[in-house]
Structure to design on (494 residues):
């Protein structure tokens, strides 16, 4: 046994993927078995790098895609000759690019180290983000934002996938919330940057051009840092020692999350027909429509409340800051009670109330409508953590997680295309149509999340009664006979 274990260990560290049964046997015979202190040490080491850096990188995705909304208040529409419909198309072209590439983005990470994959993508999208400054016409902006979406998609899909490769389900919520909290942070930070840039006076460079140049060049710089900071997989991350890699992989497999092995396409196809996954994806689609819309158009919405364009840039920050704090609270609570959809339903009701306030209050009541913006941000942006966690935590195995992430992001990006048409200039200042649409999608999210929570709760109770609890003293092969989520010891997240 010692000789078999030694050879398998060599294969693991040389990145030769052993047969899954041998890998399970190897993990169950680690000598010595991983201690709690070893696990804590490995988790701390990963925590020091992955969540904070993903937070920074995700900020840049939102800054680069959302800068067009800030640029509206810097007269980009007039300078480039945008009409209401052509500007909506410019917003939507980013998501057309995302939708085109996201479905396949994580497949590339099966063949290229994740750190290299994300670094290359970020540098290229930084180039396109910078090129927005020299778009001389609506047509030029369409092309630039299309390619911006294609290369951002590699990171947008890769970030949650990377989290799922390095953390078991009970630890995903806090880490997801940490980097997804960059959405409200980017909204606030982007507003502050735009406020500062708006005061730059130059006869040769437009203020919106300065905005694109600053954010694009910073993106390229941080893309280079990805090569040294980001991990790859538990078994081949360069800044973990061989023993730490074993402990990290053992920890993942304890939770049924095998992070390597050959793709068995017929088994994967069968499990992609999982109806639970598609309901959770539909929840995400509706959730992300609200997220994209609010992140892009908050400056425009706030500008209708009696503020001038420069003040409106500054006043977008407070609602985003409140939502930022709530992201961390919800991520911590999700891990603590092991629930995603169960929290999603009541929190979304806050957004529903905010949408109603913005629809029903008269336009003259600027303070009341500004309070509605706070409620919408509070109920929408923290929920993206729960919507993403709902899909990741209820998918078994690295391969299905990767493909499921690609599917939900690609379908979600179709909602991004719709974003540009929900708040057209012709609907100012009330934006009634847009807020009624957000009210409807939020209502679906709350209802579907509540129903799924009850269905999963009953299924878990049935399996507990029929098969008992999962053993804690050994690694269980959830891929045995292609069972995955149908394995008797698998339990759904509520």
């Amino acid at each position: 046994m010692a000789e078999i274990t030694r050879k398998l260990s060599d294969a693991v560290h040389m990145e030769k993927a052993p047969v899954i049964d041998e890998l399970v046997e190897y993990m169950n015979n680690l000598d010595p078995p991983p201690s709690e202190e070893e696990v804590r040490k490995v988790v701390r080491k990963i925590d020091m790098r992955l969540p904070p850096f993903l937070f920074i990188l995700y900020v840049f995705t939102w800054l680069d895609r959302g800068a067009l909304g800030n640029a509206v208040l810097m007269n980009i529409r007039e300078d480039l000759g945008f009409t209401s419909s052509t500007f909506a198309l410019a917003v939507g072209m980013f998501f057309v690019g995302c939708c085109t590439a996201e479905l396949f983005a994580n497949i590339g990470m099966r063949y290229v180290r994740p750190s290299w994959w994300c670094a290359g993508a970020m540098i290229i999208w930084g180039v396109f983000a910078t090129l927005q400054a020299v778009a001389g016409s609506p047509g030029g902006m369409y092309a630039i934002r299309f390619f911006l979406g294609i290369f951002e998609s590699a990171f947008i899909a890769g970030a949650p996938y990377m989290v799922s490769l390095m953390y078991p389900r009970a630890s995903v919520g806090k880490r997801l919330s940490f980097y997804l909290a960059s959405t409200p942070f980017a909204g606030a930070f982007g507003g502050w940057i735009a406020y500062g840039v708006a005061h730059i006076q130059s006869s040769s460079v437009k203020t919106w051009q300065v905005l694109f140049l600053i954010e694009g060049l910073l993106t390229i710089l941080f893309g280079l840092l990805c090569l040294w900071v980001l991990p790859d997989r538990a078994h081949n991350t360069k800044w973990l020692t061989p023993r730490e890699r074993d402990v990290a992989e053992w920890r993942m497999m304890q939770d049924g999350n095998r992070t390597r092995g050959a793709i068995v396409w017929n088994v994967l196809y069968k499990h992609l027909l999982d109806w639970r996954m598609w309901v959770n994806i539909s929840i995400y689609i509706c959730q992300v429509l609200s997220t994209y819309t609010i992140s892009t158009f908050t400056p425009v919405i706030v500008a209708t409340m009696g503020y001038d364009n420069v003040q409106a840039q500054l006043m977008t920050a407070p609602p985003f800051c409140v939502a930022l704090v709530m992201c961390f609270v919800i991520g911590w609570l999700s891990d603590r009670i092991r629930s995603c959809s169960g929290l999603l339903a009541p929190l979304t009701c806050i957004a529903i109330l905010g949408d109603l306030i913005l629809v029903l209050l008269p336009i003259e009541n600027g303070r009341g409508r500004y309070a509605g913006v706070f409620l919408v941000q509070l109920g929408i942006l923290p929920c993206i953590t729960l919507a993403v966690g709902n899909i990741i935590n209820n998918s078994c195995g690295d391969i299905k997680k990767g493909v499921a992430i690609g599917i939900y992001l690609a379908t979600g990006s179709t909602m991004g295309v719709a974003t540009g048409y929900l708040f057209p200039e012709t609907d100012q200042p009330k934006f009634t149509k847009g807020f009624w649409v957000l009210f409807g999608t939020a209502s679906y999210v709350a209802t579907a999340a509540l129903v799924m929570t009850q269905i999963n709760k009953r299924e878990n109770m049935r399996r507990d009664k029929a098969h008992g609890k999962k053993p804690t003293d050994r690694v269980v092969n959830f891929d045995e006979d292609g069972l995955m989520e149908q394995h008797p010891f698998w339990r759904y997240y509520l």
